[in-house]
Amino acid sequence: MESSPSAILKLLVPKAPFILKTALWSMFSLSDTSSKWDLRTELTVKILRDMLSPTSPTHSISATQKLTTRDPGVKGKVWVSRVKLAAAEDDARQLVFAAIEEMGTGEEQWTKPATAPLEGEWNGYRASARDDAGEPEGMSEQTKYDHMVQETSSKVTVLYFHGGAMYLLDPATYRTGCARLAKETGGRVFSTRYRLSPQNPFPAALLDCFTAYLSLLHPPPDAPHAPIPAAEIVFAGDSAGGMCCTALLQLLLHLHRRSPAGEIPTVTFHNRTVPIPLPAGLALASPWLDVTRSLPSIENLTQYDYLPPPSRAQHTVYPPCDAWPAVPERADLYCEGSALCHPLVSPLAALDWTGAPPVFFSVGEEMLRDEGAVLAQRMARQGVRVVWREFEAMPHVFAMMLEHLAGSAVHHEETGRFCRDVVAGGKGVQSSGEVIAAKTLERRSVDVGTGLTRIGDEEAAAFMQKGRERIEARMRRGEGSASAEGRPLI
């Protein structure tokens, strides 16, 4: 969005009384969050919450996309090497389609997207650059990539999927965060550009994520990088990017399950038959795992979050545009109502995670907390090594929103350590759970197999079914074609 001083001033001046009241209540410890938050956090979260309140939006979906996908440019200690690779042949596409059908109930409706070129960018930490440095002039994308690799100190390659509710944001808006991740891991980050909904509904984004992984493993001739072993690749993502990570992992697990015992599945990719191994691990930040938004924390943990829950946002109506309402009508921005509970749409619906690599969860005391807890506990009970870090009183993707907090530094350090450890062989990664206090950062251990939630698999499935019914009923009332149930930053 526009971030010039005049634009920011224009936005904040009408909110001056609200800002003053929030500051005074925090300073005199009169707010319900002042015992957990400092003044800066109080102002940031509550201003965001006020801005995202479920009033009628003034921007359409397509206008909002245009605002949130602007390239902010390159500034500071970050390498950026942009990539656009030619589309592959049809085999990977058909493999995804077959998995969707095999993993579904048969009642799901979905469109079959075409293949598309892979776009994204390599990001790395540029240690010698000033904080206000621009992009190096006169360098080709290949030269910038080569310089980035020279600054790495580990074998870690992070395949990063950005957040934004599957319809907002762009890899370019994540450059600072990806550079921080590269610094913490000592490695490099490939931030992929997946096709956004509602123009490109499920499974377009999943196909793009699958293509990105195959392109790291088996680069086409126009790629800047050499083949990267799967044991050196970690999937990472925040919010909806966490959904991309887990949906892609579930796709890979399905391909492995359907292959003969002991054999790795293969695919024809850029005229070669290549294997599809599993990655070294997953690192998830506030993952969005349930597109129905139906588990209890969505309504019960709003105190520390800024996102509007369904009860306050279900009648949010966007001005019509070419992107939305969809033609023909669709119940959700991302998918058809019949597909909301498909395991590759909402990974929380996937019941079998056996054989998965280690998974790191970093969550706040946020609206999406229950989704992560149910999935993490399910994975741990199935023998997956799960590292759970829960940060008291923190909102959705807090480390990105509240960089000044000591807890945010802990998040980055823990994420970096996990990525380094799984790429080093993973032997040092053991299941563990910790809840980290808001101000003192004191740690309390929790059992990841039994102590994260009392919500069982059947109960979670029932919540999701009710959520699907809520969304489909909204469409039947004539609201589904224009509303998006207020999930602006997930």
Automatic annotation (TrEMBL):
All residue ranges annotated as the Alpha/beta hydrolase fold-3 domain in the record: 158-399
Gene3D superfamilies according to UniProt: alpha/beta hydrolase
Pfam families listed in its UniProt record: Abhydrolase_3
Keywords of this entry: Hydrolase
Coiled-coil annotated residue ranges, if any: none
Signal sequence extent: none
UniProt KW Hydrolase keyword: yes
Listed InterPro entries: AB_hydrolase_3, AB_hydrolase_fold, GDXG_lipolytic_enzyme
GO molecular function terms noted in the UniProt entry: hydrolase activity
Name the UniProt record assigns to this protein: Acetyl-hydrolase
Native species: Dothidotthia symphoricarpi CBS 119687
